[in-house]
Every structure is written in structure tokens, then in C-alpha cells.
Amino acid sequence: MSETITATSAIPWLPTTSEQALEAPSLAEQVALMLHAERQVMILITGSDNGRVSGFLAELTHAVSDTDTALRIKAAIDAQALFVLLASQLHIPVQNLTPMQVATKVGDRLRENAPNGNFVLLCEGAHNYSNQLLESIRQLSNYPINIALCGRPKLLHRLWRPALSALKQRFNYRLDLNERRFTRAFILLIVLIAISIAIFVGQRWWPEPPATQPKVHQPVVANTAPPVPAADAPSPIVNAPSTPATQEPSSEDNVSLIIDPTLKQPPTH
User: Fold this and answer.
1) What's the rounded Cα separation, in Å, for the pair 33 and 200?
2) Domains in the chain and their CATH numbers?
């Protein structure tokens, strides 16, 4: 079995009418044809159960029954009740049988040819299945049976866990029926476009503020001259004792010396 998952985009589902049935096959009939074409495991991602999901599964069960043998289970069962429910749909008596014997008889019956086409297991509410139940469904994929797991988007998040990695490798197709996710994205896109248009119109029609003179920034010129040393502060006046000033000799005192020749010079030795 291939390990490649082929994902498809959201496909709206509408109840099939007689006129639409004559024109083109419905979505349920297309899925039934895919399940009938080859042995495979498929994921059907749905939104909240507001009646549309149940209606689609009812139509899918009817479409599958036209070409194959449909087996259907719900989320209210556990791993042990799975084989008991399948045994009742396969018309296998289970009285006085152990759970292991019931699982063995179910496996032997699935290896036989189906009453109509192939065996197709339709799982409803698979996002609420326990890990043990999902593991049992993975083991059923070893038999010649096609499986369609129908659940909400959180089922995909659970399949990325290591405990369910073996089941994730068994899926061939993933069909997204949850169109609400795409509707929200479309609404968000419309809101963003409306906001962009409002901003553009506001910039066109909103009065512009008066122009103000731009401030001229004077360039700062560095002072390259060497710093001028500060003048020495005058020293305080100290009252020191005054000294008589030296007076220059007057003109009267400036008299040349008269040498008396009669004066004898002192004897020289």
C-alpha cells in the first residue's frame, strides 16, 4: 500500500437530487468510485456536525453499497467492540467466543470475497477514536478492505504523533470537506482589502497639515585655537614694614673730589 497522501482542497457537499444525479455524479458517488477503484485508505476531513456530515455519510454509505459491501462504525465503540460490531455486519455468530476468537473469525471473513464488490469500512467521528481503536483499524488495513476515516481536522494533528505514525503511512488520499476554514480565510482577505482601501481614501481626502519651516541646523565649528591661559589673580596686599627709599643725590651733592697733594700716601711695604 502506498505511503503517499494525495491531499485535495475543500469540496462543498450538497444533497443529491434526481436532476443532479442525471447531470453529474455527486461528491459521495465520486468518493465511492475512488474506493471501488483500488484498495486504499482515505481520510475525509469534515467540520462541525450540523447535520451535513451525517447526511454526507448517509449518502456515501448508499453510494458505496451500489458497488461494494459497506461496513460502518461509529465513535461510541472501543477496540474490543470493533470486531463484535464487524462480526454482526458480516453475519458471524459470536456467542461463546473470546475476543481473540472473534477477531480471528472477522479476519478470516475479510479474506474471502465480499458479497458485493469489495469490503469498504466507513468510520464516523474518527477524531474521537482512541489510539487503541485506531491501531485496530490499522491492523484491519492488512486485509483486503478499503477504509475511509471521517473526522474533524484535529484528527490530522493526532496522526502526526509518534504513536500513530504507522497509521499515517497507510493513507492514500485526504479529502477536505471542511469549507468553513476556507470561508474564514476569504472573509479575512475581504476585511484586509477594505481596510487598505479606507486607508488609501483617507490619505487622499484628509486635509494635509500646514507646512512648517524646517529647522536649519547650524554646523558646529570646532575651536582649533589654543586655549588662552587665565590671567594670574592679583596677589593680596600685605602690610609690610616700609623701607626708606634710596634717594638719588641732588645736584648740590654732586661735587668732584679735590686731591690735596700735601697728603701723603700711606707707606707701602
Assistant:
1) 51
2) 6-180 (3.40.50.300)
